[in-house]
Design brief:
By secondary structure, the chain is of the alpha/beta class. Helix content is 38%, strand content 20%. It has an eight-stranded mixed barrel with strand order 6-7-8-9-10-11-12-13, surrounded by four helices. The longest helix is centred in the middle third of the chain and has 19 residues.
Length: 337
């Protein structure tokens, strides 16, 4: 295996022969007589992929995945990180997808974001896609999360968005790029790769907006504030995504003060008819104006929703009514609105 960051830079290989290293339980020698003491744990040899799968399944059923960590390795004389054994099992069971995550040069699709002031394209959201169409983005990220590889996939998604925009989107049009805050353990270290790619592909930092995937739930506000600080220091803007769903509150908005807040579809759907959502949206617009935050309505699917959002003073809009994600940036016509 390669040496690198345990979350992003170490390649996982499914071996036919080698050793399963496990730590976390003294019960292992009782279960496997051939287990050898090794580095505060045990090494168990295997001679086929089927035997490796059997070893992992036996350990998980006998002891449980909560306390076990380990890895698979070709020999006992090299560096290797350890992961929860449950994640190792997911990597083995979904190795084709794991290999796809590690080796694929992904591409981006682009969904337009429209200014409600002049009906022009303000930005495109970059959405990760497999260029061969082998798997949906949702399934890809689900396997990555369960396999403990979401940091690697998130990093690759950021690089893909930067690379593809450099070839397809003109300067002055912004790119909104998703990121998972839980994958950025140390912003000063974890974001170096992203900033390197901004320079590598000659992208103007002012044309980039990195948006928190809010569905993850914001738990550590101070950590996210530090991530925002590092992005902004590099001249990059930040946004909160899916705002109004889950744990996102107006207090979170006030504490973080992003450059943009993207309002979740649940608050936009039939907002022209829903009095409760209308009250929420008006208050959000009021507070955002006080904090100099631009408000973006997500999931616009009806003319009436668009009209209401424009009337109450929202700045931007996005949704299938305005344009679906496409492999090439869609040319927007103001006649659509």
């Amino acid at each position: 295996m390669e040496y690198g960051c345990a979350s992003c830079g170490v390649t996982f290989n499914l071996l036919n022969t080698g050793y399963l290293y496990v730590k976390g339980s003294r019960e292992i020698p009782r279960i496997f007589s051939q287990a050898m003491p090794f580095r505060k744990g045990y090494a168990i040899s295997f001679s086929s992929e089927a035997k490796l799968i059997e070893l992992v399944e036996t350990l998980l059923s006998s002891i449980g995945e909560e306390i076990l960590e380990g890895n698979i390795m070709p020999s006992l004389n090299q560096y290797f990180p350890v992961y929860p054994l449950g994640e190792i099992a997911v990597r083995i069971q979904n190795y084709k997808i794991v290999d796809m995550i590690q080796s694929t040069d992904f591409t981006s699709f682009f969904q337009p974001i429209i200014s409600l002031k002049d009906d022009r394209v303000f930005a495109y959201e970059s959405l990760l896609r497999d260029p061969k169409g082998r798997i949906s983005p949702g399934d890809l990220f689900e396997v990555a999360h369960n396999a403990g590889m979401h940091s690697l996939l998130d990093q690759k998604a950021r690089e893909t968005a930067i690379r593809t925009r450099s070839a397809k989107i003109q300067d002055g049009i912004k790119s909104f790029i998703n990121f998972l805050p839980s994958t950025i353990y140390n912003p000063e270290f974890c974001l170096k790769h992203t900033f390197h790619n901004v320079k590598k592909y000659n992208v103007n930092p002012d044309d980039l907006v990195f948006e928190v995937v809010e569905t993850e739930k914001i738990i550590d506000i101070d950590h996210l504030k530090e991530i925002f600080r590092v992005y902004k220091r590099e001249g990059i803007q930040v946004a909160l995504d899916d705002f109004g769903s889950g744990h996102s509150t107006l207090d979170v908005l006030i504490r973080l003060v992003p450059d943009y807040v993207k309002v979740d579809r649940s608050k936009i759907m039939y907002c022209d008819q829903d009095a409760e959502n209308q009250e929420y949206l008006r208050e959000l617009v009021r507070i955002s104006k006080e904090l100099d935050i631009a408000v973006l309505a997500e999931g616009i699917e009806r003319q009436e929703e668009l009209a209401f959002c424009r009337d109450i003073g929202m700045n931007l809009a996005q949704g299938y009514f305005l344009g679906r994600p496409q492999s090439e940036p869609e040319i927007f016509s103001s006649s659509m609105v």
